[in-house]
Structures are given as C-alpha cells and as structure tokens.
User: Which sequence fits this backbone?
C-alpha cells in the first residue's frame, strides 16, 4: 500500500480527534475509523463515516412489526429472522461511506453495483499517480477450460516470468508516454482528459463509495464468494471485516444465511428429496442440464 508521509499524518490526525455526540455509535467500527486497510499491492479501504448499528436495524423492524415483537425475540434473534426471511428494509437504515483505492479494471467491475453513491478521482482535473497493479506470481493463472470468465491453473516458470515482464514494461511505457503528452517545460501539452486515454486498466484510481447495509450485503454476497475474481474478492473480504466490527449481529446472520448458504432450484429440491428417499439420481435422470447438474453437485459437496 502506497501512502505518502503526508497522507499517513492526516490519517493519524483524524484518528486522534474525538467529538461528543448524541448519535448512536458502533464501538467496534469507531476503533477502525479512517484507518487504511491494505488491499493488493497499492490499494486500500478506509471507513470515512457511517450511520446506525445493530440497534438501528431492530428499531426499524419494530416500527414495521409493532411492539409485540420485542417480547417475542431478542435483538439478535429478530435480526436473524429478518435475514432469514429476506426482509430488507430494516437493513437499509444503516449506511457506510468508504474511501477505496483500486485498479481501474476492478473499479469497472465494482461499478456494476448501481445501488451506491460514488465520487471518483478525476483524471480530467488531476494527474494520476504512477501506480499499477502487478499480480503476485501465485495469482497469475491461465484461462479456465470450464468457465469462460474464470481462471484455471497457475502459470509457472518462464511463461509466468514473461507475463510479469510484459505487464511491468507496458505499464511503465504507457505512463512515460502519458507524462510526455502532458503540459510541461515549454510544450503546450495535451489536455489531461485526453492524455489519460493511453493509460492501461491496471492503473490505480480512488473513490468515495456510500451504500446502505442491505445493498452492501448483496455486494459482499457476490464479491466475497469463492468464485468471484480474486482482485475484487480481496476488497470484499476486507470490507467484511469492517462490517463485522460495525454490525456484529447482522454480520453473523449474513454469514449464516447468505455467505455460508446455498440456494437450490425447484428441480434441485426435487432431486434432493429423491436422494433422501434413497433413490440414485444422475444428471440424465435429474431433469437438469450438465451445467446445472455440475453446480448442484458442487453445492452438495460444499
């Protein structure tokens, strides 16, 4: 992670300040506020602000369901009930704002989640830093032979070394040309909004990203999954730790009913019932396609 001495001093200054407030605070997240959590080679995630805690979820739910719920369930039990039955609006009462530094190609995948408020660093106004994501050797992999959007075996030896050489040289050359095109010395220079088009997708960008807890958990369910692309998954995993500190009861329910759970289709449930009854079921007798059957088997194996 690349933070300048000035940036580190600003973070330390922010973390040293305390203020009186009548707002509810989540003590676990207060301890992590403004802290830069390293991700990848130059990236990070920081919590800038948040609203609400586990109690805010319960408060919203009891407004919805009436006071009778309070005697029937404790707070954690109610949160688990809400999660189990997909009652989403109480979780929308909590929000979090993150400062994220990430490669552009990860940002383009991330921005597909259109339920957040985003403000990205402007390369029309400012000059981007010379920072590129270069994968660690263990994360260089060939194309999967069974999944068109996934990875297969890890590249090794001379082939891996050549890929790393190309990535580093291309990134350096592109940034050298970017700098050369900008206004400097006696040349008029190309506008920044045009010069940036020559930069590769592994250059780092930054943004502020604000989202409510319900939509954040949807993001995490997809991006913290083992099948998600490694480069976005590590960001999701870092955010999971922050959410655990923020709303521990909600996160525990999320782990049990979303992250650690699987969903079966109607044909899948029918096959499960047949199996539990002692019948041998194959892909040919399941009524599922080969792809569906492969996913069904993978879900059973865990």
Assistant:
């Amino acid at each position: 992670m690349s933070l300048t001495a000035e940036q580190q001093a600003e973070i330390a200054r922010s973390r040293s300040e305390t203020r009186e407030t009548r707002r509810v605070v989540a003590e676990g997240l207060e301890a992590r506020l403004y802290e830069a959590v390293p991700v990848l080679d130059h990236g990070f995630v920081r919590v800038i602000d948040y609203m609400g805690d586990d109690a805010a979820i319960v408060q919203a739910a009891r407004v919805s369901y009436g006071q009778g719920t309070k005697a029937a369930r404790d707070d954690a039990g109610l949160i688990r009930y809400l999660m189990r039955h997909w009652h989403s609006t109480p979780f929308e009462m909590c929000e979090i704002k993150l400062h994220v530094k990430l490669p552009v190609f990860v940002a383009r995948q991330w921005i597909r989640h259109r339920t957040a408020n985003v403000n990205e660093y402007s390369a029309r106004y400012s000059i981007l830093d010379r920072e590129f994501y270069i994968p660690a050797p263990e994360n260089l992999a060939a194309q999967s032979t069974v999944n068109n959007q996934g990875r297969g075996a890890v590249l090794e030896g001379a082939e891996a070394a050549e890929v790393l050489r190309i990535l580093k040289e291309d990134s350096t050359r592109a940034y050298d040309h970017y700098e050369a095109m900008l206004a400097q010395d006696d040349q008029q220079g190309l506008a920044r909004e045009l010069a940036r088009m020559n930069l590769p997708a592994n250059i780092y960008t930054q943004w502020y990203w604000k989202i409510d807890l319900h939509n954040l958990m949807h993001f995490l369910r997809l991006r913290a999954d083992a099948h998600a692309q490694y480069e976005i998954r590590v960001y999701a995993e870092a955010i999971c730790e922050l959410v655990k500190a923020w709303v521990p009861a909600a996160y525990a329910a999320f782990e049990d009913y979303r992250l650690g759970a699987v969903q079966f289709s109607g044909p899948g449930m029918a096959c499960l019932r047949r199996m539990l009854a002692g019948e041998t079921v194959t892909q040919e007798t399941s009524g599922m396609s080969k792809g569906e059957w492969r996913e069904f088997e993978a879900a059973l194996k865990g």
Remarks:
- Residues 127 and 135 are 24 Å apart (CA to CA).
- The two ends are 34 Å apart (CA to CA).
- The chain has 14 helices and seven strands.
